[in-house]
Specification:
The protein has 295 residues and is α/β, with parallel strands linked by helices. Helix content is 40%, strand content 15%.
Length: 295
């Protein structure tokens, strides 16, 4: 058996298509969606990722403002977030990590206006998500669900093992899956006997950050595996948390690394920005204010 390849490209293309439609509607009303990214590091890998967001935004007709703040301190970053919250032309805010040493990331993400928190970083967003209230989910976590739904892989009633407990993937993903009536087991790097949870699962999601952790010994025949991991191996190659060569002959479907979840994540960030802009646009139209003042 050869596993079906769950490529992220067709999923991202589908998201981009609905984004383009909404951007067209916003532009018709004289409204421009805008995302702002706070970049406080000179790390090249992080800078590359931010450039990918810029490119994605430009391709969709969304304005992207990157605030370069290398070596900024706590107060400077806090002031920048507050200013973006108050800037009516900005609809989405991303606080890109890593941040400079000594900066309290937890305190900063709490400052992000939940209405502009397009990557679900603020604990308020995660809290709302957990009780089923409207909120933007972290884009990587939502990408997993988008892939499963695009390929028509059943979620309701299925046992899903989520390996990883981070606030940006594992925990919010568990909430998204529960909302879709899955039975969820949350595992992590210190789970004893990981196979006891992953082998009975119809779907396993790996998001723990350990290269090649999941092998054929930990998965069931004909199960589905989503690999969120991004690790660099000894040869300098990007690999996931799944030992693909081992798992692929056994499972029904597997998302690749690269080319899987990460491809969808950037498209979702732009989609979330446009959704946030649409809410503001609708509010302004309801109040009868001229759109030209809000571009």
């Amino acid at each position: 058996m050869t596993a079906r390849r769950l490529s992220g490209k067709p999923v991202a293309d589908e998201i981009r298509a609905k984004t383009a439609h909404m951007v067209e509607n916003l532009n018709r009303d004289g409204f421009k969606a805008k995302v702002a990214v706070l970049l406080a590091t000179e790390n090249e890998a992080t800078a590359w990722y931010v450039r990918s967001i810029e490119r994605a935004a430009a391709q969709q007709g969304v304005e992207c403002q990157v605030l370069q703040m290398p070596e900024a301190d706590q107060d400077q970053l806090a002031a920048a977030i507050t200013a973006l919250n108050e800037d009516e032309s900005v609809h989405g805010i991303i606080l890109q990590t890593p941040l400079p040493e000594g900066v309290d990331t937890a305190a900063l993400v709490q400052l992000i206006d939940p209405a502009k928190d397009i990557d679900g970083a603020n604990p308020l967003s995660l809290g709302r998500l957990s009780v089923g209230q409207p909120a933007f989910a972290p884009a990587t976590a939502r990408s997993v669900v988008e892939i499963l739904e695009h390929y028509r892989i059943p979620i309701a009633g299925q046992h899903v093992a989520v390996v990883g407990r981070s606030a940006v993937v594992g925990k919010p993903l568990a909430q998204l899956l529960l909302q879709r009536d899955a039975t969820v087991s949350i595992c992590h790097s210190r789970t004893a006997q990981l196979a006891d949870f992953t082998k009975p699962a119809a779907i396993t999601v790996m998001a723990v950050g350990r290269a090649n952790l999941l092998t054929s010994q930990e998965v069931a025949d004909s199960s589905v595996v989503i690999d969120v991991g991004t690790n660099v191996d000894e040869a300098g190659q990007l690999v996931g948390d799944v030992h693909a060569a081992s798992v692929q002959p056994k499972v029904r479907a597997l998302s690749p690394v690269p080319g899987g979840v990460g491809t969808v994540t950037t498209a979702l960030l732009i989609w979330h920005t446009v959704q946030a802009a649409a809410k503001v646009c609708e509010s302004i139209m309801w109040r009868g204010e001229p759109m030209t003042t809000r571009r």
